Amino acid sequence: MPPAKKRLRAYDVSRTRTAVLTQFGHLRDGVRTLTPEQLARPAGLGEWTVRDLAAHVTAALERVSGALESPEPAGGREPQVGLLEWASTTVGRGEDIADDARTLAAARPDLDALYEETAERFARLAGGSAADRLVATRAGTMRLGDFLVTRTVELVAHTDDLNRAAGLAVPCDRQALAACTRLLADTLADRAPGGSVEVRVPPFAVVQCIGGPKHTRGTPPNVVETDPLTWVRLATGRTRWTHALEEAQVSASGERADLDALLPLMG
C-alpha cells in the first residue's frame, strides 16, 4: 500500500505577504550599496552579472502584481498547479528567465527606482487580495496564497546568490526563510513519500520521506540534518549533495539517508 498523503501545511497569507515585502526591502537596501565593479561581477548563475541578478529579483514581486492587475483566470475555482507541484514546473525555464533578466537590466539601469516602483505596486495590488484568488503564472493558475509562498523561495535563494557573488551580507527575514525552508522540505516529502528517513532543517522543518521501514519511536535510524541556507542551496541546485557532505554542511546517518538522487528539487 502506498504511503498516505499528509495534510498540506497552512500558510497565513498576511504573514507571507509581509515576509515577501520585508525580504524585498532587505534586498533593496543591499542593492543600493553595490558599486559599478560589483554590478559587473559574474553572479554565479550562468552568464548573468550581478546587475542582471539584481534586476531579476524584482520579477519575483512583479509576477504577482501583473497577475493581480489582470482579471481572475476563467475555468473554475481549482488551480492548475498546487503548492507542492510548483518546484517541478521550474525545470527547463532557465533560458527564458535569463533572457528576461538581461533585457530588464539593460532597460532599467536605475535599480533603486526599479525596486521602489516594484515594491509600491506589489503593496498596492497584493494588499487586499484574498488567499484563494486564482492568479496566472508561468506554470499555470495558482492560488494567490500559494504563489506568495513560492516568492519566498525566489527571494531567499537570490539573497544568498547576491551575498556570495557581491560579498554582501543581506539578511534573511525569519518568516521568509521559514516559509521557503518548509515549502522545499514538504516538496521533498511529497515527491518521495514514506517514513524511513527523517530530514531535519532546524529550527523550521522536520519531514519524513522515502519508502521503507517506518520509524515510530526513539531516535530514527536514518536522519539527515542541515541548516536552512544549505537546504535551500541543495534544493535549488546551488550545492550538490556530495559537496555538502564533504564540507560537513549536512550530516546523514543510516543506510537510507542519501538524498543525492532526489536533489535538486528545482530546475
Would you kindly provide a brief summary of this structure?
With 267 residues, this protein is an alpha+beta fold. The protein is built from 10 helices and 6 strands; from the N terminus they run ααααααββααβββααβ. Helix 1 runs parallel beside helix 7 (144-166), helix 3 packs antiparallel against helix 7 (144-166) and helix 8 crosses helix 9.
Write the layout of secondary structure elements.
Layout: H1 13-32, H2 36-39, H3 50-57, H4 59-69, H5 94-107, H6 111-126, E1 134-137, E2 140-143, H7 144-166, H8 174-191, E3 197-201, E4 205-209, E5 223-226, H9 228-236, H10 241-246, E6 250-253
Parallel strand pairs: 3-5
Antiparallel strand pairs: 1-2, 3-4, 5-6
Helix pairs in contact: 1-6, 1-7, 1-8, 3-5, 3-7, 4-6, 7-8, 7-9, 8-9
Work out the strand percent. Answer: 5-15%
Distance between the termini: 30 Å
Q: Pairing-aware structural class of the strands and helices?
A: alpha+beta
Summarize the amount of helix as a percent range: 40-55%
What is the H/E order?
HHHHHHEEHHEEEHHE
Which overall shape is indicated by the principal axes computed on the Cα atoms?
Answer: globular
Average pLDDT works out at 93
Strand order of the largest sheet: 4-3-5-6
Q: Which stretches of 5+ consecutive residues score pLDDT under 50?
A: none
Task: Quickly count the helices.
Answer: 10
Task: Report the C-alpha radius of gyration, rounded.
Answer: 19 Å
Quick one: how many beta strands? 6
Q: Tell me the major beta sheet.
A: 4 strands, mixed
